[in-house]
Amino acid sequence: MAQENEHRDGGPEPQDAAEREARAGHRPPDPRSAPYGGPPPASPPPPPPVSPPPPPAAPPPPAGPPGDAWPPPPPPGAVPPPPPGPPPGPPDALRAVGAGVLNLSGLGLGYLALRQWLPAGVCVAATAGLLVAALPASPEGVPGLLVAAWAAVAVLAAADAARRALRRPLPGWPRPALVLGLGLVLLAVPAGGAVAYESARDEAVEEMLLERLAKTDALAERAAGRAGFAAGKKEYTRAVEGYAGLAADHPERRAAKKVPAKLEALYESVATPYREDDHCEAIEPLTYLRELPDSVGEQALGKLATWPDKPLADALYTCGMDLVGQGQAGTGGDHLTVLFEEFPESKEAGQVGPALLTEVSERSGALPDDACDNTSRLRALDALAGKLPGESVSGVSDKARSGVEKGTYSCGVEEFEDGKFSEAAETFTDFADTYKGNKNRDKARKAAIAAEIAEERPAAGRKLPPAKSPGGTRMELVVSNGGPGTVEILYTGPVTGRLTLKACAGCKAYDSVAAGKAGACKDKSTSYPKQRLSLPAGEYHFLYKRGSSTDTVRNHSSGARIEPGYTYTDCAYTVKGLGGLLPPPVDGAAWTPPPGTGRDR
């Protein structure tokens, strides 16, 4: 047996010459070859190719001072270089997916598992930035661009962690399946955070809407505190629009659930005059409430959309009839007209006709007391009935007109007795012209003459003309026109009447009253227009109304007493004045009063 010897360089020593020759690159002769008596061997196979010799070793470093080592040791305090990392292992998809899923949480946990601190810090910073922007939760939420940026960072970090972990082990995580499971569990962190944030944001929206509701309530309260509906109308409108907007835009919110009660309170506030029985004052606010559905919609108001109908109909009727009873049939009639236009089938519309008939009966029955006021009201009731539907106010006009006829004459008497002669003259004249078949027509015509004279001569209005002419002896009064233009003479006393004298051809105005007295109606060559009157004895009042086509002549009045046994003459003439033709005292040039009497100038 060959003895095993150890070579000095650490390798086994070759055991024989053959082995050494084999190592040297050639084979010794086979003992079975020809020299050993065997058949000649076959041709040996060609020798294997010989590898090129290795490159020469680097020369040793130059010798240094005794005791120096090569390479030289690091300087004192220097950090030694890190040991080389483990060589890349085979790819592991499960591990890569687990690392990527860990990073999807946004916390950089995949990087932490890989011991990649800087990328992990970037992920944490991105998530922290998102939280700073998102908290506290606001109704507007986080800007979508910011969320998209964070999601992009998370996805990129997940892809990068997966790439890194594909061939690199995760220190401390020997089981990739555990990493993947933990990553999937941690996905609940951003998902739960999103749910929690959305809940907080939803609560922020609720708080914002409740604050908006409170501001709207303040508007309604401020409007209610104004002096009258008109002063707070704009604020009421803004409040209603605010309530309706809440209900329409956020129907499921807590604030919207409170809107119906808030609207009811607002309606009650607006309708305060109606609840306090101030029906005329209530018409405007109730009309406002009734028109709200046109501006904010019926859906927002619900049952309140039709609530104002009944109180408004009642207010229109009550206020209208109250005003009619107060003598304001014009304004009251406007409300009643609106009642028939808006609520023709209402109970209140059906009450108008009977109420007007009652009012007419009361006014007619009160005559002749307060004749002018009652007659004016009856006339207004007649006009009002003409504006309303005929079937609803049947009989009102006929009854009112009957009262007007009765009351007009009584009104003229009232005005005459109150010294309102101009109004009385007009009233009596209208009565005589309108009611020609009335038994008081002649009395009205005489009273109109007396009232017209009394305007110029108040003594003529001490009493109304007598209904019948007195008996007894009558005296003749011859009245002539001695001036230019026609002259109308009105007289009243024991008898009342009027006459008209034609213009005197060739007569002119006198320069003075004295000249008129001396020459009026005395030119025998002139034919003076004249008329004869037969008058009972008594005191008379005259009014002379000179007509002129070119000049203005003032009226003139005078008085005289007619005594039995005499014949009287009177001549009307004119005197020039600063403003044109002025009436003279109209003393007749041929006036022949009895002894001791004369004309009251």
Describe the 3D structure.
The chain has 601 residues and is α+β, with helices and mostly antiparallel strands. It is built from 21 helices and nine strands. It has helices at residues 17-24, 93-104, 109-113, 117-134, 144-165, 176-186, 188-224, 229-249, 254-257, 259-270, 272-275, 279-296, 298-301, 309-325, 329-342, 347-366, 371-387, 396-417, 421-434, 441-456, 513-519; strands at 474-481, 487-492, 497-501, 530-536, 538-546, 556-562, 567-572, 575-577, 580-582. Strands 3-2-5-6 form a four-stranded antiparallel sheet, with helices on one face. A hairpin with a 2-residue loop joins strand 8 (575-577) and strand 9 (580-582). Helix 7 runs antiparallel to helix 8 (229-249) and helix 16 runs antiparallel to helix 17 (371-387). It is rod-shaped, with a radius of gyration of 65 Å. The N and C termini lie far apart (196 Å).
Features:
four-stranded antiparallel beta sheet, alpha+beta, disordered N terminus, 601 residues, transmembrane helix, 9 strands, Secreted protein, membrane, disordered C terminus, three-stranded mixed beta sheet, 50% helix
